[in-house]
Amino acid sequence: MAGGPGKPGGESGAARGTAGSPGARVAVVTGAARGIGELLVRGLSRRGLRVALVGLEPERMREVADSLPGPALVLPADVTDPAAMREAARRVRGEFGRVDVVVANAGVATGGPFAESDDATWRRVIEVNLIGSAATCRAFLPDLLESRGYFLQVASLAAIVSAPMMTAYCASKSGAEAFAHALRAEVGHRGVDVGVAYLSWTDTDMVRGADEDPALGRGRSKLPWPANRTYPAGPAVDRLLAGIERRAAHVYGQRWLRGMQALRPLMPTVLGTVAKREMRRLPPSPAGGPPPGLVGAGGAADERSRARPEPGRGPAPGPAPESGRESAPGTAPQPAPEG
């Protein structure tokens, strides 16, 4: 990536485990333990950026950080906790001295009929995918204003096409998209660029978990081509990395998603008509069965983190770690990656 004022990129990463060159750009990625977030961290590090990994699975993030070619900081934190995210921003500032790129990637999902959904699980999807993105931005926006940096909101095809059996996820991603568009209009004159990344069904733990859910898997099989395919994560992430380099307003993980924007006004009518037929064909949910939970390994990590006692959910206050590969002590994990 080319460097320059307010541009992602810069000097090569410093020796393993050090803070790196003061001029090297810094990227923060939430949901960095696995999936799209992990691949973004790897790609940004290869391009010479120092990276901060924010997520709910500290051991896994440490493994990722230890395998990177450049400096990395591990910060276990829950993106829905404003205090934890403010502390994470303070730690990144203390360790690296700046923030140039922030990727709001953390996300969770659940599926099934809204009438049968668990209220707490449904709300959690909104909290992580929408409120968590706003909390991430609020914590790091002062740094982005200072560096004239770039904020990328990872959205989804679900922000363009609202599908049945995915009310929480579609609502959260539509909201996150709208948040990013509004933010772009607010901060553009101050040198901060804001982008939205769109992904279709991409091969991550979240999507594999969704396919294991009977209702979601069956519903997805009824989608028309090309929306019924699962796409490899690597090429999608390469497109996101190119979008970060360009500071793009819109980034499409799969090229055909760009064309969906033109069809957007038609989607509610088309989908409403088709869904009436398809929903009648779905078998009823088992009587007395538990409501659907969060899908995938990242969803399981989120549920485990919320089952723990409240104290220690975010990065504990204290001096920035000496090593660029250390994590904040006394911290606990964060929401799953998008994709």
Automatic annotation (TrEMBL):
Keyword Disulfide bond attributed: no
Residue ranges of domain Ketoreductase in the record: 25-204
GO terms for MF: oxidoreductase activity
Signal sequence range: none
Disordered: annotated span: 1-22, 280-339
Stretches with biased composition (Gly residues): 1-12
A GO cellular component annotation in the UniProt record: membrane
Ranges of biased composition (kind: Pro residues): 283-293
Keyword annotations of the record: Oxidoreductase
PROSITE patterns from the UniProt entry: ADH_SHORT
Residue ranges, compositional bias (Basic and acidic residues): 301-311
Family matches, as InterPro entries: KR_dom, NAD(P)-bd_dom_sf, Sc_DH/Rdtase_CS, SDR_fam
Domain of life: Bacteria
SMART domains tied to this protein: PKS_KR
Family: Belongs to the short-chain dehydrogenases/reductases (SDR) family.
Protein name (record): SDR family NAD(P)-dependent oxidoreductase
Protein's organism: Streptomyces calidiresistens
